[in-house]
Design brief:
The chain is α+β, with helices and mostly antiparallel strands. The protein has one domain: Gcn5-related N-acetyltransferase (GNAT) (Aminopeptidase, 3-Layer(aba) Sandwich), CATH 3.40.630.30. 28% of the residues lie in helices and 35% in strands. The chain is built from four helices and eight strands; from the N terminus they run E-E-H-H-E-E-E-H-E-H-E-E. It has helices spanning 25-38, 53-65, 114-128, 143-151; strands at residues 6-10, 13-18, 70-76, 79-88, 98-105, 133-139, 155-165, 171-180. It has an eight-stranded mixed sheet with strand order 1-2-3-4-5-6-8-7. A hairpin with a 2-residue loop joins strand 1 and strand 2. The longest helix is centred in the middle third of the chain and has 15 residues, at 114-128. The model has no long low-confidence stretch (mean pLDDT 96). The protein binds coenzyme A (COA).
């Protein structure tokens, strides 16, 4: 599904949310390399981001064309700030009521309410799609993300101990969280 341009005001800044176009592919690969270096709480190290611009364009196309997926880009005063997305967990009848979501914004745009605004919009789209629950994984120690998710109604439902092993030999858990949309 494709989100047409929407505007919001946040602390005096213009926030524009919109779906992605194929031409955004290169920008999204650069963004992924940067945010993966800014935080230990994403999937991998920046030198492990190997997507080509074409692969990213395909990722964008899949989200735009599917009726159970969406990718939302956020711009603060016209500058690209990050994105969030959801997809169905799986195509089978037993799992198609579950949506999986993810979000990351550049470090300089964290902490001023953008994540809350983006997720609120994303959850609305997930509900409108008919999903019964939204699910996500957050790395143990990511207190800001955990707090944000909890305040939006997500509840912790399980942990994979030491799911993340860092180059310095330390570990962090993966925490699974779920938002029950039927209860709302
Ligand atoms: C996680 C992320 C998406 C949140 O977006 P954001 O715009 O920074 O978050 P917001 O400003 O909307 O909200 C953050 C909330 O956490 C709170 N917070 C900030 N630091 C905190 C901390 N150390 N402990 C607990 N709460 C904290 C803020 O007060 C705010 O809560 P409030 O609205 O109740 O006051 C963003 O920080 C990010 O992309 N981080 C890097 C990548 C990442 O971690 N992605 C998530 C992977 S699961």
């Amino acid at each position: 599904m494709f989100l047409n341009e929407e505007h919001y005001e946040l602390n005096g800044h213009d926030i524009m949310l919109r779906g992605a176009a194929a031409e955004d592919g290169a920008m999204l690969v650069d963004y992924l390399k940067t945010v993966c270096g800014e935080t230990p709480f994403l999937l991998c190290y920046p030198d492990e981001v190997h997507y080509t611009d074409e692969q990213e364009a395909e990722f964008i196309k899949e989200h735009n064309e599917a009726d159970d997926a969406m990718l939302i880009l956020a711009f603060v005063d016209g500058q690209y700030a990050g994105n969030c997305s959801f997809t169905s967990i799986g195509p089978s009848r037993r799992s198609k009521h579950r949506a999986d979501l993810g979000i990351a914004v550049f470090l300089k745009y964290t902490g001023f309410g953008l994540g809350r605004l983006m997720l609120t919009r994303l959850i609305k789209a997930i509900k409108e799609c008919g999903f019964e629950q939204a699910e996500l994984t957050v790395v143990g120690g990511n207190e800001r993300a955990y707090h944000l998710y909890e305040s939006l109604g997500f509840r912790e439902c399980g942990r994979i101990p030491n799911a993340n092993r860092y180059d310095d030999g330390t570990y962090a858990d993966d925490i699974h969280m779920v938002l029950n949309l039927k209860a709302e």
